[in-house]
Amino acid sequence: MKQFKCDQCESEAMHIVERDEICHVKGDKIIVHEAVRLCDACGKRVFDRVLDSAIFQEAFEIYRTLHGRQLEPDCHL
Question: How far is the C-alpha of 23 from the C-alpha of 60, rounded, in Å?
Fold first, then answer.
């Protein structure tokens, strides 16, 4: 299992929180349910490639469903 470290305080104590977030896709506001990793010590969001990638994948899937077309992700983490 990968160890995470907070960039702010260097703590390794983390937890995952689920919440709704607004993503912007091609000018549309898309609300997605996301899971994010937060530092227990300072509360800062900690980058997690797996969790953060899932947010964008869900946003693009919702966009494709709403507009009935294919769209390749053009954003970068």
Answer: 9
- Give the domain 14-67 fold: Ubiquitin-like (UB roll) (3.10.20)
Rounded CA-CA distance 6/40 in Å is: 9
pLDDT in tens, 5-25: 999 999 999 999 999 999 998
The pTM is what? 0.72
Taking only Cα atoms into account, the Rg of the chain, rounded to an integer number of angstroms, comes to: 14
If phi > 0 it is left, if psi is from -120 to 50 it is alpha, else beta; for residue 27 that is: left
Q: Which pair of tokens denotes residue 16?
A: 């995952």
CA distance 65 to 77: 23
Helix (H) / strand (E) element for 56: namely: helix 49-67
